[in-house]
Amino acid sequence: MPSRKFADGEVVMGRWPGSVLYYEVQVTRYDDVAHLYTVKYKDGTELALKESDIRSQSSFKHRKSQSSSSSPSRRSSSRSRSRSRSPGRPARGRRRSASQSREHKEDKKKTIQETSLALPVSVLFKPSENNTKRYNGEPESTEKNDTSCIILEQKLKPDLEVKRVLEQYSLRSRKDDKKKEEIYSEKKTFVAVKPIEKVPTKTKELEFGGRIGTFMMIFLLPATVLYLLLMCKQDDPSLLNFPPLPALESLWEGKAFGIFVLWFLLQAVFYLLPIGKVVEGLPLSNGRRLQYRINGFYAFILTAAAIGVLLYFEFELHYLYDHFVQFAVSAAAFSLALSVYLYVRSLKAPEEELAPGGNSGYLLYDFFIGHELNPRIGSFDLKYFCELRPGLIGWVVINLAMLLAEMKIHNLSVPSLSMILVNSFQLLYVVDALWNEEAVLTTMDITHDGFGFMLAFGDLVWVPFVYSLQAFYLVGHPTTITWPIAAAITVLNCVGYYIFRSANSQKNNFRRNPADPKLANLKFIPTATGKGLLVTGWWGFVRHPNYLGDIIMALAWSLPCGFTHILPYFYVIYFICLLVHREARDEHHCKQKYGLAWERYCQRVPYRIFPYIY
């Protein structure tokens, strides 16, 4: 293989992805395996470029000056020779004046053309500025709330049209036009390089404690689920009252495993039904967009109808409560088998389809994080399917089973007020997620994380069996609350839901159409990627207002369980830790992606999740 051409620390000209613009960058490192240079732009953005997309400064300037200096002289000499032989030319003084005027205009026109091929629009209109914003592709102001860039493009179109007509009907000789086309062809050969195809490099920064941390979590996560469920079964679920370990044979039941597999297949059938719209996800590293069918809410309606039919024929959902631990073990075994399949198939996946965070080369780490970004069987997207369907809808079914179990065990004609609150709050959350299913396509789980043990176990085991912990707890430990307390908890949940939903809607609407007149009041900081960072509304209050709403709702779900034991509050404690960790991951990725624009955003919005606290 050829040796590297550019050294670390060398200042070169790097092409911006998806364009023909070259900017001054500094080489930071070189990947010997992928043969990619990691370069740093002046705004702090770091990207991986191929060697063909990098040029030395001397070569770049030499070619530019050569094309711009030689062209006018050749045109001038050619024009003077052809007109000296013309038999019908006008008076000498007048001819010289017109020739000089046309030469001056054409030279000026050519200079503008060459400059526009190498510089963004903002530099053309502000040539005296030389700051970081220019390299970041940003306008003069740091905050915007209009569509000035779109208007500018529309204003440029008539000028280009006039210019085309003038060139078409100009009085230049054909020889001059031919020379000009040759010059433009030479310039085009140099500038118009084919678009960059990003190839994922090896993962350098390992998360979750690296290889040791992920190895321990593969065992710690199932053990935590088993511990929580066994604690809820005890009469005294105190932390110091450790539950006795059950016999291994009692943890497995073939019937429970069969029912879980049937449940998974039923949701897969609902997913494949040709109902609901088909949308495209975000662009992948190779520029391709995957298609997704949005029919999660329809799957929920069909599931509710199926459960209603089972209840009509007196099918005992109480069985789910009696064998809850066995169902959790079955789900864990299924998720482990699925994770093994996902890793084995990822070994044959093309390089561009691997996850950016799960391509470390370490078996256990990639197995945990997920090696392949979007594993599919035909059009069936395994990660997207598991993200919302079996676990999230299963969570609602489990809550319903706990409600019926409470009524049967305690001989109640109606469920307790605490159980009604827990079921209602969590039902609203699930229905909202399925109704706004399209929003999940922009989350880190879909765009960045691969599909491995972490997401497979989380979607199929952690979500349905840990998130339903409050309902499971209330069956064995009934708690009585008064109506005023229930009303206060309901208000708290509504506040959290309002923050969560309005913040997410604000973000999603802005991502889909930033030029929407309804969003004209929103201010944002433009970035080099073309996206904007909102600095008004909820996103100007804290950096992650959706996380704040999530945590408030999690607290409201736990309060109906009373204050006798801390076990029902495991969810809110875990959720705070999860979102703080996820926020740290978001900060790291956004700083790398947006550079100085993210630093300005952090100065504008200093609080991460909790206002005036964190």
TrEMBL record:
<keyword id="KW-0812">Transmembrane</keyword>
<keyword id="KW-0444">Lipid biosynthesis</keyword>
<keyword id="KW-0963">Cytoplasm</keyword>
<feature type="compositionally biased region" description="Basic residues">
    <location>
        <begin position="76"/>
        <end position="97"/>
    </location>
</feature>
<feature type="transmembrane region" description="Helical">
    <location>
        <begin position="521"/>
        <end position="542"/>
    </location>
</feature>
<feature type="transmembrane region" description="Helical">
    <location>
        <begin position="455"/>
        <end position="475"/>
    </location>
</feature>
<feature type="transmembrane region" description="Helical">
    <location>
        <begin position="481"/>
        <end position="500"/>
    </location>
</feature>
<keyword id="KW-0152">Cholesterol biosynthesis</keyword>
<keyword id="KW-0153">Cholesterol metabolism</keyword>
<keyword id="KW-0756">Sterol biosynthesis</keyword>
<feature type="domain" description="Tudor">
    <location>
        <begin position="4"/>
        <end position="62"/>
    </location>
</feature>
<comment type="similarity">
    <text>Belongs to the ERG4/ERG24 family.</text>
</comment>
<keyword id="KW-0443">Lipid metabolism</keyword>
<keyword id="KW-1133">Transmembrane helix</keyword>
<feature type="region of interest" description="Disordered">
    <location>
        <begin position="53"/>
        <end position="113"/>
    </location>
</feature>
<dbReference type="GO" id="GO:0006695">
    <property type="term" value="P:cholesterol biosynthetic process"/>
</dbReference>
<keyword id="KW-0597">Phosphoprotein</keyword>
<dbReference type="GO" id="GO:0005637">
    <property type="term" value="C:nuclear inner membrane"/>
</dbReference>
<dbReference type="Pfam" id="PF09465">
    <property type="entry name" value="LBR_tudor"/>
</dbReference>
<dbReference type="Pfam" id="PF01222">
    <property type="entry name" value="ERG4_ERG24"/>
</dbReference>
<keyword id="KW-0753">Steroid metabolism</keyword>
<keyword id="KW-0472">Membrane</keyword>
<feature type="transmembrane region" description="Helical">
    <location>
        <begin position="212"/>
        <end position="230"/>
    </location>
</feature>
<keyword id="KW-0560">Oxidoreductase</keyword>
<feature type="transmembrane region" description="Helical">
    <location>
        <begin position="554"/>
        <end position="580"/>
    </location>
</feature>
<dbReference type="InterPro" id="IPR001171">
    <property type="entry name" value="ERG24_DHCR-like"/>
</dbReference>
<keyword id="KW-0256">Endoplasmic reticulum</keyword>
<keyword id="KW-0675">Receptor</keyword>
<feature type="compositionally biased region" description="Low complexity">
    <location>
        <begin position="66"/>
        <end position="75"/>
    </location>
</feature>
<dbReference type="GO" id="GO:0005789">
    <property type="term" value="C:endoplasmic reticulum membrane"/>
</dbReference>
<comment type="pathway">
    <text>Steroid biosynthesis; cholesterol biosynthesis.</text>
</comment>
<feature type="transmembrane region" description="Helical">
    <location>
        <begin position="325"/>
        <end position="344"/>
    </location>
</feature>
<protein>
    <recommendedName>
        <fullName>Delta(14)-sterol reductase LBR</fullName>
        <ecNumber>1.3.1.70</ecNumber>
    </recommendedName>
</protein>
<dbReference type="GO" id="GO:0003677">
    <property type="term" value="F:DNA binding"/>
</dbReference>
<keyword id="KW-0752">Steroid biosynthesis</keyword>
<feature type="transmembrane region" description="Helical">
    <location>
        <begin position="250"/>
        <end position="273"/>
    </location>
</feature>
<dbReference type="InterPro" id="IPR018083">
    <property type="entry name" value="Sterol_reductase_CS"/>
</dbReference>
<keyword id="KW-0539">Nucleus</keyword>
<dbReference type="GO" id="GO:0050613">
    <property type="term" value="F:Delta14-sterol reductase activity"/>
</dbReference>
<feature type="compositionally biased region" description="Basic and acidic residues">
    <location>
        <begin position="101"/>
        <end position="112"/>
    </location>
</feature>
<dbReference type="InterPro" id="IPR002999">
    <property type="entry name" value="Tudor"/>
</dbReference>
<dbReference type="InterPro" id="IPR019023">
    <property type="entry name" value="Lamin-B_rcpt_of_tudor"/>
</dbReference>
